[in-house]
Specification:
The structure is a single chain. Helices cover 42% and strands 12% of the residues. It is of the alpha+beta class. Strands 2-3-4-1-5-7-6 form a seven-stranded mixed beta sheet. The longest helix is centred in the middle third of the chain and has 15 residues, at 141-155.
Length: 268
């Protein structure tokens, strides 16, 4: 837990967040679920609203009966995947796709946890008693860019981002990140934007726990070439208030210094 707190501190020194970073842990047996100190959801709540609660500082746990959205329960591995869903028939009634072939293609590309969890725990990443499986960051596009750049520092460009504007929190950010063990981003979906009231300027990034620390380090090491002077000064100010060593930052210098040409031949 202490290491996680240190990494969150480092990342928040580098970037600005309005919400807490969330951890999601799949729990595969009843004993582990009962022993988990998180607050049990007593009734039903859509999964994305659980994520929203975790971004506000709540540590909660839920079983399948508490997942108040059957589509989320399905991709999390907590309920049956029917043949009518696999064929695309179920989604045809929503009016989002031209024909069943397209609908089936969409369903084929929605990630599903093939294991069957007994429950799931969500909470502020830094405060969870056990390590999570997935880390969720709801933030602005600038921070998403920096997280991608940090991920690329050690891994190179990831070519399989999966975004369909559908089942954002449950499928795109949680299930796909968990199954692929790679980063993913989501522009959210109509459902979670309605239920959880995310800002129109917010999007989501999912990271497997196994790659969170290296992504933070990647953001740290790319601060000098990629951040501009105003943000460099903000970063230095934040690190000066903590006991962590700041990245080496050089004002007036970036990876693209003296790279561009804008003159009389330009359109301005």
């Amino acid at each position: 837990m202490e290491k996680r707190k240190r990494q969150i501190e480092k990342l928040t020194n580098l970037l600005q967040f309005n919400r807490q970073i969330v951890g999601v842990r799949f729990i595969y047996d009843k004993e582990d679920f009962e022993a988990c100190p998180a607050q049990r959801i007593l009734y039903s709540l859509p999964y994305c609203m659980m994520v929203k609660a975790a971004t506000a500082g709540h540590n909660i746990k839920a079983t399948a009966e508490n997942i108040g959205c059957f589509a989320a329960a399905r991709v999390l591995g907590m309920t049956e995947v029917t043949e009518s869903y696999k064929s695309g028939e179920d989604y045809m009634g929503f009016g989002m796709f031209d024909n069943q072939k397209v609908s089936k293609k969409v369903c084929d590309n929605i990630s599903i946890n093939e294991r069957t969890p007994y429950g799931v725990e969500l909470g502020p990443y830094a405060e969870m008693e056990k390590n999570p499986d997935v880390v969720i960051i709801v933030t602005v596009p600038y921070n998403a860019m920096r997280l991608i750049q940090g991920y690329n520092y050690y891994n190179g460009t990831y070519n399989n981002y999966k975004m369909g504007g559908l089942q954002a929190m449950c499928a795109e950010i949680t299930a796909y990140t968990y199954v692929s063990q790679n980063i993913n981003t989501s522009m959210m979906c109509a459902g979670t934007r309605f239920l959880s009231k995310w800002g129109r300027d917010e999007m989501a990034v999912g990271l497997p726990f196994s790659k969170f620390d290296e992504t933070v380090e990647g953001v740290f090491h790319t601060a000098d070439p990629l951040e501009r002077d105003g943000d460099k000064q903000r970063i230095l100010n934040r690190f000066s208030e903590s006991d962590q060593e700041a990245p080496g930052l050089h004002m007036g210098q970036n990876y693209d210094t003296n790279y561009y040409k804008v003159g009389k031949s330009g359109i301005i």
